[in-house]
Amino acid sequence: MTTRRGRARHQTAKGSDLTDEEALLELEARRVRAMNKADPDAMLPLMHDDHVHVMANGVVTDKRGAARGLRHMTGTVEGGQVDVRIWGDLAVLTGPQTNHDRIDGEPVTIRLYVTRVARRTSEGWKFVSMQATRLPAARPT
Questions:
Q1: By CB atoms within 10 Å of each CB, which of 18, 23, 24, 90 scores lowest?
Q2: Domain membership of residue 36 as a residue range
Q3: Which tens digits make up the pLDDT trace of 37-68?
Q4: pTM to 2 decimals?
């Protein structure tokens, strides 16, 4: 299967002309901002109505459940380098994410590898699925 990296250009809702890859990276940046603001209303428009969300703890939820979970976020999310692969109207974004939080008052860093699947819609790219996998703790050197 051949991957295509963002050659097509399209107009966004704000009128800017972006390649597919640029539009997908902007969608991802908006996801991280919504998470860091713990803002479900900012997250909802990023996800397709049929969205399936698998959290690192194995909990599976839908669009509303994923957005609702943001209300309980107390930490911050740090996105990493994102690899974007595009096949027509479908795209897969993969890469690391680091969550900084507190558990029982103690700072905790959780390293994840996140896979996002997006679909081109009449409203632009939307996430149809996300899955976070917790990575093993770094071993001391």
A1: 90
A2: 9-134
A3: 999 999 999 999 999 999 988 999 999 988 88
A4: 0.84
Distances (CA, A) of 127 to 13, 95, 120: 16, 15, 9
Residue from 120, 112, 97 nearest 21 by CA: 120
Listed residue (15, 34, 24) closest to 121, CA to CA: 24
CA distances from 62 to 11, 18, 53, 59 (A): 28, 29, 6, 10
Residue 3 lies in a domain: no
- Please return the burial class of 105, using the count of CB atoms within 10 Å of its CB with bins 0-12, 13-18 and 19+: exposed
Amino acid at 124: G
